[in-house]
Amino acid sequence: MKQKLIAVALFGAITLPIAAFAETASLDEVVVTATRFNDISVDKPINVTIVSQAEIQQSSARTLPELLSGEAGISMRDLFGNNAAAATVDMRGFGAAAGQNTLILLDGRRITDPDLSGVQWAAIPFSAIERIEILRGSGAVLYGGGTTGGVINIITRTPAKTGGSAQVSARGGSYGLFEAQAGGSYFSGKADLDLTASKLSSQGYRANNRNEQTNAQANFRWLTEAGELVAKLGMDSQNIQLPGGRTVQAALGIDQVRTDPRGAATPLDYASRDGNRLALDWQQMLGAVDLNVGLATRNKNQKSYFDWGGFPAYRDGDLNVTSFTPRARIPYDLGGDSSLVVGVDMHRWRYGQRISNALANIAQPINSIGMHQKNDAWYLQNTTHLGKETTLLAGVRNERISMAGNDIYDPAAPGAFFGSAAPAASFSATKNAYELGLRHQLDSGLAFNGKIGSSFRFANVDEIYESGAAFTNQFQFLRPQTSNGVEFGVDQRTQAGSWRATVFNSRVRDEIHLDPFTTGTGNTNLPPSRRQGVELEGKWQALQKLALNANYSYTDARFLSGVMPGGVFTQLNVNIAGKRVPLVANQKANLGASWLASEQTRLNAALTYVGSQFMENDEANTLGVKIPSYSLFDIKLVHEMKGWQVNASVNNLFDRRYFTYAVSSQFTPGRYNAYTLPGRTVFVGLSYQQ
């Protein structure tokens, strides 16, 4: 409670002066995520935050998830703290299922895949990002499934002026980290080209956690009289060792979090990931109609080895997706200045995985799994300005999914015993989404937003391939998850800053998630649940050389009803009605300051507080131990001179011991595995831009 009062007081101290003393100004920001076209954000009934390139470069955050967790309503979960190799962002409290309820886009295309591998955050260097758009509690109409929490669109840079530029940078720091980046751009007036490449190597905070990451991307744009053609090409490669968790069991005097936080429980485990992507966008003005035709393809190969205490598993998987996304924005005047966005999304996914007991035997796999998935959708979204002060937004989407899977089991394969093949199976479903929003702005610049809507999510390929009660493989197709939400917000933008306050409520049915209690069931449709909360955020130019920002989030994520049957190895008839969703903190607060010490020198500081949360597997909230709350303090010093920039940062300045993920044992009360994160880390960087 004390931390909650402090956070509210800090927020009030920043936002009240804005509302009381600042004169309003026109601070229009271009945002594409809300309409899938370049548009102005301030007149839309949406909860959107734009993180600029300058804010990204000044931030002390080491990774994209860390950067995003500094925003209201967003938390992050990291397993190792090594370049976000196993990190997830969570918008509005979905816990372990957060990765499939927050949609991540790269230049408007989804990089959240229909498996559980997670987003490859490290494949997008900070230097390649132009801005990030965060759309909370919206996106189902325009982008489809997996947007219940919201949408995060990472937009890479495109040269905007004639001539060229080049930049190189390097940084090094704690735990053997070294990273080098290089990039350049050229714009001739008709064509432009932007190139970025980076290489990172780190030993990691934990033993057996070395990480090697390589990225490269190229953006090309050709301008025409009434449009443009854009091509974006990228590749990434990662090799990482996996240290496992740290075990705690107080009854036996075991506490590796305290005695050996940097040790490895799985010294033989490792994984690799290689990806390529190509996207083409053709945009053309046909009179007053804005037409955009998108075509993209992306593939990734993932390999992993887990020793499992002498029962090893080696996996080699491929995922390919092709998308075709034509859309148009049609302006018209019918009782107000209006525009209609109409579009079609077609996605084709191909997924394959081979499972063996070792790399040497993968040519003769034990199981070979193949799946095909098709998603076809159409959508309409209308925006009407009912005068200068009021905007009405309404949209609807219809999406159909079809999936088919097959599995081949080879009993003669090395390491095969007590195995089976899942019988071939298929599944199809159709879901609708809608959104209705209204915004009204007063002469003072104060604006009121209201919105209602629905969203959905389909189970992914990793969530449906499971074992039955007899421990035989099978495809367990699940009902689509649905959600209905409502939110209300007040915001104001001024010459001195901005502030926003939002309340929201979302009810989820058939939530797709792991059932840790019931034997023979893997991922399942959970009983109804609810997410509701308050988000406060503000930015204030307190003095000519001092800028402050703060945000506070209160999230109440609970199951509304339900009993999990349990099984012979777990609790029986587990009542989860009214219980909190694991891995969701009730409270989170961020406070930041940026001081311009001189024209060349800037000091940034950030304080983060995250409240306690129940561990994964503790849906009943009865296992007796929680992930403790924690506070982190980061600082960054930046000095610029004649194209050169020197920066130094210290993260977790006070060397706090903490972890953001832990899983409780269902068999031994009081026993859990925690994934400890780095203590104090120091980084020094040097860059040059011309």
Q: Characteristics of this structure?
A:
Maltoporin, Chain A, 6 helices, five-stranded mixed sheet, single chain, 6% helix, mainly beta, 57% strand, 690 residues
CATH topology, which one?
Answer: Maltoporin, Chain A
Largest sheet: 23 strands, antiparallel
What is the helix fraction of residues, given as a range?
Answer: under 10%
What is the C-alpha radius of gyration, as a whole number of Å? 25 Å
Low-confidence stretches: 1-27
* Class from helix and strand fractions: mainly beta
How many E-type strands? 44
CATH class: Mainly Beta
Average pLDDT, rounded to a whole number, is: 90
The CATH homologous superfamily corresponds to TonB-dependent receptor, beta-barrel domain
**How much strand content do the residues show?**
over 45%
Reported CATH architecture: Beta Barrel
Shape: globular
| Number of separate domains | 1
